[in-house]
Structure formats: C-alpha cells, structure tokens
Amino acid sequence: MAISTQLKRRTLFAAGLGLLAAPVILRQKAEAAPTGESSNMNAAPLPEINQFKLGSFKVTVVRDGINISERPNETFGTNQDPETVKALLTANFLPADKFLNGYAPAIIDTGSDVILIDTGFGAAGRARGAGQLAEGLKAAGYSADDVTLVALTHLHGDHIGGLMEDGAAAFKNARYVVGQAEYDFWSNKSREGTPAEGGHKAVLANVTPLVEKATFIKDGDGVAPGMTAMLAAGHSPGHMVFHVESEGKRLLLTGDTANHYILSLLRPDWEVRFDMDKAQAAASRRKVFDMIATDKVAFLGYHMPFPAVGFAEKQDGGYRFVPKTYQFDI
Q: Which residues form a coiled coil (predicted)?
C-alpha cells in the first residue's frame, strides 16, 4: 500500500513538471473545449502560441494556420529530378507525396513598443482554418489596438492579409514599416496583365490604404530600437529580414528566405517555385544562413515547423535546422 501511494505521488509530481514545461500550449488545449465537452473533437481549438524571452523583450509566435499540399517536388527542388526530392524527404522521415506549410506571425514586446512581424492571412483565410492572428493576440494577452508597429518582411498575401479587417485598418494605433523596393514593385501599375497581377491587387487592397502611416526602408535601416533591416531579395524583389537584439541576445526574423526546414535548408541551391528570382533567392539563403550558422544566432522562419524558431548549423553542403527547446527559458 505504501509503495502504491509513493508511486502515485511520483506520477503526480512528474505530471506537474510536464505542465510547467509547456504552460502556454497545455493551457490552450485545456481551454479548447468547455467543461463536459472534452470529447467533442469538432470543437474549434484556440490558436496555438509560443512565448519566450529575448533579453528584456518578450516574443510571442502565433500559428496563423496550416496548409497541407500534395507533390512537394513541384514546389521545392523544381530543378531536380522528382525522385531526388522524394528521396531526401523519405531520408528525413517525411512523406514523399505531401508537405505541411505553417504560417507564423510574431509579436515582439519591447516594453515601449508592441511590434508585429507579418500578419498572416486575415479574414480571407478563415474559411480554411487560417487567419488566426487576431485570436492568437487575445490568447497572448494583447488586442489589435495594443500593436504600435507592424513590420513586413515582404508583401505576399500570407504576410499582408491581416492588415485590413472589414475595410478598415486592423491595427488602428500602429505605424508601418515596409521595404521601399518591395512596395515599389507590387504597387506599380505595370504589374497588371502579368503573373504578378494578383499580388498587385492584394497590395493595393491591404497596404496602399496605410501608406500615410508607413515608413519605407532599405537595407541597413533601423526599424525600432534594437531592430534593423537587411535586404535578402529573391523570394520577392525587396524581401527583408529583421535583426532583433536585446541585452546581448539576438534573433533573426528570416521571413521566407527559406520555406522548408529540409528542402530549403539542407539544399539551399534547389529552386523553389514561389521564389521570383531563383538564383538570387538561393544566394540570399546562403548569405543569411551562413551568418546564422557562423554566429550561432537564433532565427524565426515564417514557414519553419511551429513555433518556427531555432538554430542552423552547416551540414552536408547546406544547413541543419535545430528547433528551439528550452534555450530561452533558463
């Protein structure tokens, strides 16, 4: 009897440690269904968030949604034999016929600013389970009105869709930081009648109404105290990455510099269908991730496995993704 009691106490203690290890994720799962409805698998889950400290800053990553697509080789490694792409996926314990794409806007609370990096799909994505940023803000203890600055890595739809809500600015107290080259390209009327016309219309609808409150930046410009921009073009003409530093701790927000933790990082020279200038995008990947690997800097990649934060080390001619665990918690 004493042995049984002791084992129960140990089990309860171990469970308590597990709860302490992941408070945000477990809290949301516990609250996803009302009391008495825990078995209802159709109940809408609350958005997934992950929070950690970066020096004196607080970082919150929100999972805006996920998308499962078929035929990875038609998106990644488009200049490779399809069997080569499939073999790399299989060797890394991933299915060869499907891939999951996630979307990870981030909030950086500096104490004086609440900075949002990219906005997810917004209302346009909610019919398919995306557009969860607004709910993610609430889960993290913020409202849209708390956001004081929105910084955009680039102007593709999954990064700007949340800027407007019902025809009005979603973040009414915010100012905006946008790459000059990026905006000049997408807002240009000459995009009409080209493959870029859809992106042009999205920018006119979501970004152009906000230009009076926008600052347009170039390579090396400051975004906010502790945050600077670096041009990493190729995925789009003016794609930016953002350096964030607080109390000696560093984080690089890489946007879409690399879009898959295996196919883009282990094979950075493989072409990606969504990269507009494929050679330039590959050069930017190498430049950015060489720096990350050499300096041992943490990075947040918008499409990396949630919570989309980790490190990279050089391996096999490319880079191995090392996901965040408890580095920021102790």
A: none
Residue with tokens 């910084």: 151
Enter the pTM of the model.
0.86
Q: Would you give the DSSP letter of residue 47? A: P
User: Could you give the dihedral angle defined by the CA atoms of residues 10, 12, 13 and 18, in that order, rounded to the nearest 10 degrees?
Assistant: 130
Q: Find the farthest-apart pair of alpha carbons in the chain and give their distance in angstroms, rounded.
A: 81
Q: Which residues are CB-neighbours of 269 under 8 A, at least 6 positions away? A: 282, 286
Q: Measuring CA to CA, which residue among 102, 96, 98, 57 is closest to residue 248?
A: 57
Read off the pLDDT of residues 123-173 as tens digits, 9 standing for 90 and up. Answer: 989 988 899 999 999 999 999 999 999 999 999 999 999 999 999 999 999
H-type alpha helices, the chain: 2-21, 23-31, 82-91, 133-139, 157-160, 180-187, 197-206, 278-295
Quote the DSSP letter at residue 44: P
Pairing verdict, β 57-62 and 49-54: antiparallel
d(CA 98, CA 61): 25
Phi and psi based region of residue 125 (left: phi greater than 0; alpha: psi -120 to 50; beta: remaining): alpha
The Cα–Cα gap between 37 and 127 comes to 24
Start-to-end CA distance of the chain, whole Å, equals: 38
Tokens found for residue 176: 């905006």
Length of the chain: 330
Strand order in the sheet with 49-54: 49-54, 57-62, 106-109, 114-117, 149-151, 175-179, 214-217
How do the residues of the chain divide into helix, strand and coil, expressed in percent and rounded to 5?
A: 35, 25, 40
